Fold this sequence. Notes:
- The chain is mostly beta strands.
- The chain has three helices and nine strands.
- The chain has helices spanning 75-82, 88-94, 184-192; strands at residues 6-19, 30-45, 56-71, 103-116, 119-128, 132-141, 146-155, 166-173, 176-182.
- The protein has a nine-stranded antiparallel sheet.
Amino acid sequence: NLISKKLNGKLKTQDLLIDESFFQPKSKFKIKKAIFSCKMDYEFDNSVKKKSLKNFSINNGICKSSNLVISGIDVKNIISKVDNISTFQDFFNLFNLKKVGGITQLETIFFKFKLSNNKLSVSDFETRNEVMRIRSSGNYNIISKDLNADNKISLKTKKFPSLPHFSVFLNGNVENYKVSYDFDKVKAVLLKK
Length: 193
């Protein structure tokens, strides 16, 4: 609309390549390579005198990909160790994000998102492979780089084919975020072993 100086539209991408070059060099976790299909409704408001990212917003964003690889964690290696733990502390130590590394193949990834006032909100995020499923939601401020995310993780092992999910919470600036866990449901199962 030329009178209100606003542009609204729909954007659909096919075969959008996301790889390691998309991420900051210091990022611990990266998508090594993925091809995404995305669609979104967007608005650009040019009536605001001060131009910034606040002029741009996204609603109803959806992205999906399949057969992607992430670096920074080797889920199969962690899963292989779960069946051999002797204490709950051993289980907890497996998920120390400062000590994990490697790569993980994922079958699918799907998420909904929106962007408004410099805040990227992700909901209904789900990714999985044959031994794990992660469901997440959270927010990321593009300017301040503050992050908060709630991740529910389910694992399958030979010894524990139906472990209850546990939660991993990330909160703070992406350069120095805090990680907290809720292992109560898993702890009850593992302590029975």
